[in-house]
Design brief:
Distance between the termini: 19 Å
Shape: globular
Oligomer: single chain
Strand order of the largest sheet: 3-2-4-1-5-6
Number of strands: 6
CATH superfamily of the largest domain: P-loop containing nucleotide triphosphate hydrolases
Number of domains: 2
CATH class of the largest domain: Alpha Beta
Structural class: alpha/beta
Number of helices: 13
CATH topology of the largest domain: Rossmann fold
């Protein structure tokens, strides 16, 4: 698994790796699953996908829900096909819940009554993001943010089952479908912030505002899943008059920095806590400084991968 915060260069490294050996990438990015949301999700472009095939991209339309559990189930099918074809899969992404669901499994979802579930969703849809997060934190002390969809899910599970989402995830786990080797890309804070600023500029120049305007014009609700992601929600706020156009760029950059910080904290803690015993025996986590060019990182990864597997 090639993991790390947004802007660290995961896609570029994966594509460079694909120049050295045949790999197939599986995107573990909760935003790249949405069709028509291309610019703001930094999906690999056609040329990159021609060099390294990608699965897990363009799965659902904006407004549709797609959970980490569904990702794990879908990815298990993709992985089986990749292995059967004797190809090398590389999971690439920054959505921690997707990574954990695939590697460790998620809770077995309890049955939820359809009628009260729909009432809760209607109620949650009327609340602002901050208010949703407030209620999620009240109902689950382990809630650490993650957007409207995540907060609504925490509220839904807690109120309809009487147990918090974190309790279910801790106590009622299914088995994960793979035991991964983690390649954790990191950058010094200043370097990551520079890359994020450059990425925001590229997205706006490429037509991010027009992309959001087009999706809204097709009938997708402003706060629908997909449009509640970093970058998209700021554009929605600008189009609705809640944010000045002159403030848009800086708002997206600030939100992306906060998101990247949460990702980095999540991966650092998760990789330390969940793999510590196995890591001591097998060196399962490789942390690499992504200031090096993608080609150099890819060469390092490929050489070490071949070295490890030649001893297996």
């Amino acid at each position: 698994m090639l993991v790390g915060p947004t802007g660290v260069g995961k896609t570029a490294v994966a594509v460079a790796w694909g120049e050295l050996e045949a790999i197939l990438a599986i995107s573990a990015d909760a935003r790249q699953i949405y069709r028509r949301l291309d610019i703001g999700t930094a999906k690999p472009d056609e040329e990159q996908r021609a060099r390294v095939p990608h699965l897990g991209i363009d799965l659902v339309d904006p407004g549709e829900r797609y959970s980490a559990g569904q990702f794990a189930r879908d990815a298990s099918v993709w992985l089986a096909g990749v292995w059967a074809a004797r190809q090398q899969p590389v999971v690439v992404g920054g959505t921690g819940f997707y990574v954990r669901a695939l590697a460790e499994g998620l809770f077995r979802e309890p049955p939820l009554d359809a009628e009260p579930r729909e009432r809760l969703r209607a109620w949650a849809g009327k609340l602002g993001a901050a208010r949703l997060a407030h209620w999620a934190a009240r109902l689950d002390r382990q809630f650490a943010g993650g957007g409207r969809q995540r907060a609504a899910r925490v509220i839904e599970v807690a109120l309809l089952t009487g147990r918090s989402l974190s309790w279910w995830q801790r106590e009622v786990r299914e088995t994960g479908v793979m035991r991964p080797w983690y390649i954790h890309l990191t950058l010094p804070r200043e370097a990551l912030h520079r890359r994020i600023a450059q990425r925001v500029d590229r997205m706006l120049a490429a037509g991010l505002v027009e992309e959001v305007r087009s999706v809204l014009a097709s009938g997708v609700a402003p706060h629908a899943p997909g449009l509640d992601a970093v970058g998209y929600r700021e554009v929605v706020a600008m189009l609705e008059g809640r944010l000045r156009e002159s403030e848009l760029r800086d708002a997206i950059e600030r939100a992306t920095r906060r998101y990247a910080k949460r990702q980095e904290t999540w991966f650092r803690n998760q990789l330390r806590d969940q793999t510590s015993d196995f890591r001591r025996q097998n060196d399962v986590v490789w942390t690499l400084d992504a200031t090096e060019p993608p080609e150099g990182l890819a060469a390092t990864i490929a050489a070490r991968w071949r070295s490890v597997h030649s001893d297996v």
